[in-house]
Write a structure and sequence with these properties.
The structure holds 2 protein chains of 2 kinds. Helix content of chain A is about 70%, strand content about 5%. By secondary structure, chain A is mainly alpha-helical. Chain A has a domain of about 220 residues. Chain A is globular and about 70 Å long. In chain A, about 45% of the residues are buried. In chain B, strands 1-2 form a two-stranded antiparallel sheet. Chain B is about 75% helix and about 0% strand. The model of chain B has no long low-confidence stretch (mean pLDDT about 90). Chain B has one domain: ABC transporter involved in vitamin B12 uptake, BtuC (Orthogonal Bundle). The chains are: A mainly alpha, B mainly alpha. Chains A and B meet through helix 7, helix 14 and helix 16 of A and helix 4, helix 9 and helix 11 of B.
Chain lengths: ~350, ~290
């Protein structure tokens, strides 16, 4: 019966694809690149590996912020809360709880995600710009609670901070390798996670919310629920990244771990690279990281110039660098857009636009 | 008695927070723009005060004659040249003003280093009216509070009764309809930003006389201003004063309980208001 019905139906003349030749080629290059990166501890110097740890954690942070702002429309200026929570979870679990530091990193991500739920309850009472400052206040609350940890009976070491001894006591190369692989996992994982999310049902809902929140809601997208979900995922990612950053640095201080500059870096990377795309944060991180290495001698001038560039991009080049590239060449390294093509392969019309 | 004193000092401190909040609230009301550089601009005004008092030997309160028009002009030009181009999207104004905040903060760091600075206004800083052994009202906090009240009343009158006020309200209610009757919304926005930065100039100088400040203290001023606005209720200038006072009291009373908890207590009070009365203590009925 079902077979007969299926045969009776005419074959649709078009089908929906996302792949392009560029993306298939890109996937091969990405896979090969990952292979090379996994082997870094055996062919690169310790300094290079440490730089890459910094690079991958920045990439993860940028991807998380891009999910929030670029897709869910949530401009958070309080993501440093989850970096700090990740860092201090690593310390508390490792030094006080006796958990192996490498395992504690994973738990730190979960702790950040768990704490982000009640946080969302407060922050989501505010919208738009006020949401942005609200998340910042909440991050400050965690910052000040950490400084005054003794008053709430949590061993945070107060304003001077703590050394993560459980990690510092690990054998040197073992720690360096483990930290590097965690960083690679978090960095590459953040890209793959964003890619997987955007190809899923959640991704479709998010793209709809990004384009028109009211219209998406009227079509049955649970706007608030999807946003909370993204907020929790981003907290998880930032918690993991925070733990890896401090697994590398070994010393945590509240003023540094809860510094709003973390979020400033995420914003610069995403806005300059290209907001609302997966490729944008990757390009942005490469650019940001290279400039930071080259211009670190110039100190505050570097940040002034970066702020100026970010303003210019926010006002006049909204799509960022990747927006400029993909508009000209119709390229997608991570194909998340759906295109309609005829059965025999040629394209029905231009890509279904964002 | 120490508690009564904490409350009294909190009320006076609230005057300063109302000064911080007025400009932020006005700009949001007129063009739905949240200026993330607001706190850094307050600190910028404080540093301009340092330049004039140190180099020219002026009294800080006298420098207002120069700094108020200077910042108003900065606001007018900045709005016309940059921010007006961002208002068609939800993200751009936030990203642009956040970028501006980073620029202002780091330029101040570059020029003035990270040291704490202050402004000295002479004996008014320390003079006070003694009410009892434990309670005394400082002349300067009292002046700050009165300035905040006068500023809010003045602004209220301008918005209620003048041609400019009508244009501001009309643009806030419906930009396109206002354009139809000949109001250029770009100019109205620039005027609103100019007024906002004029209040920022006053806030910066009063901040500088009251306490020391550094280039990195801007964001905290933004948070206080924002908390005062939300606690008081969006869209209400009187609410802003009440919000500032409530925040001030929360901070001084918390600091009385434990010295490290002043600012934190203020934040927690704000979160409690957000949880229990998300539209603020004095939300305007039609503000949604």
């Amino acid at each position: 019966m079902t077979e007969a019905t299926a045969q009776a139906e005419p074959q649709p003349a078009v089908r929906v694809v996302r792949r392009t030749w560029f993306s298939v080629g890109g996937a091969v290059v990405v896979a090969a690149g990952l292979g090379v990166l996994v082997a870094v501890p055996w062919w690169a110097s310790e300094g290079q590996a440490r730089n890459l740890v910094e690079f991958f954690t920045l990439l993860a942070l940028a991807q998380m912020w891009n999910l929030l702002a670029g897709y869910a429309g949530l401009v958070s200026i309080g993501q440093q809360a989850f970096i700090g929570i990740g860092a201090y979870s690593l310390y508390l679990l490792g030094d006080d709880g006796g958990v192996h530091p490498f395992a504690a990193v994973a738990l730190a991500g979960l702790v950040a995600a768990a704490i982000s739920l009640p946080t969302a309850l407060l922050a989501f009472r505010l919208r738009g710009g006020y949401f942005a400052i609200g998340t910042w206040v909440i991050a400050e609350v965690f910052h000040l609670l950490t400084i005054n940890g003794a008053d709430i009976h949590v061993d945070t070491g107060g304003g001077e901070g703590v050394t993560i001894l459980s990690a510092a006591r690990l054998e040197r190369t073992f720690r360096a390798h483990g930290t590097y692989w965690w960083a690679l996992g978090v960095g590459a994982g953040s890209v793959l996670l964003a890619y997987a999310i955007l190809r899923s049902r959640l991704g479709l809902a998010l793209t709809a919310i990004r384009d028109d929140e009211t219209a998406a809601g009227s079509l049955g997208v649970g706007v608030l629920r999807q946003k909370v979900l993204v907020y929790v995922i981003a907290a998880f990612g930032c918690g993991l990244a925070g733990a890896v950053i401090y697994l590398n640095l070994l010393r945590v201080q509240p003023d540094a771990a809860f510094d709003v500059n973390w979020t400033a870096y995420m914003i610069f990377i995403v806005v300059i690279g290209g907001i609302g795309t997966i490729e944008g944060p990757i390009i942005g991180t490469i650019l940001f990281f290279t400039l930071q290495q080259e211009l670190s001698d110039y100190g505050v001038w570097y940040l002034i110039v970066l702020g100026g560039v970010a303003v210019a991009f926010a006002v006049w080049v909204r799509g960022g660098i990747w927006g400029l590239v993909s508009r000209r060449f119709v390229l997608e390294l991570f194909p998340v857009r759906r295109r309609v093509v005829y059965r025999h392969g040629e394209r029905a019309r231009a890509p279904v636009s964002e | 008695m120490v508690w009564v004193n904490a409350v009294v000092q909190g009320i006076l401190l609230g005057g300063l927070y109302a000064l911080f909040a007025t400009g932020l609230s006005l700009v949001f009301g007129v063009m739905r723009l949240v200026n993330l550089a607001h706190g850094d601009l307050i600190v910028l005004a404080g540093f301009l005060g340092v330049v004039f008092t140190h180099d020219l030997g002026w009294n800080p309160l006298l420098t207002l004659v120069v700094i108020v028009p200077l910042l108003a002009a900065l606001g007018f030009v900045g709005q016309l040249a940059i921010l007006n181009f961002t208002l068609d999207s939800g993200l751009s104004p936030l990203l642009a003003t956040f970028g501006l905040s980073i620029i202002v903060q780091n330029t101040l760091l570059e020029q003035f280093s990270a040291d704490q600075r202050g402004l000295s206004a002479g004996t008014i800083e320390t003079d006070s009216i003694r009410i009892s052994n434990e309670i005394s009202l400082g002349w300067f906090p009292l002046t700050t509070f009165l300035v905040a009240v006068v500023l809010l009343v003045g602004l209220q009158l301008v918005i209620r009764w003048t041609r400019l006020g009508r244009a501001l309200r009309a643009t806030s209610d419906d930009r396109r309809a206002a354009q139809l009757v000949g109001i250029d919304n770009r100019v109205v926005y620039a005027v609103a930003m100019a007024i906002s930065l004029a209040t920022v100039a006053i806030a910066g100088i009063f901040l500088g006389v009251r306490t020391s400040f550094a280039p990195t203290t801007g964001p905290t001023r933004l948070l206080f201003a924002f908390e005062a606005v939300i606690i008081g209720g969006l869209g209400s200038l009187w609410g802003t004063l009440v919000g500032g006072v409530a925040l001030g009291i929360a901070q001084t009373v918390s600091a009385q309980i434990s010295p490290g908890w002043g600012v934190l207590g203020g934040h927690l009070f704000f979160l409690a208001v957000l949880l229990l009365r998300p539209r603020g203590l004095f939300a305007r009925a039609d503000a949604s």
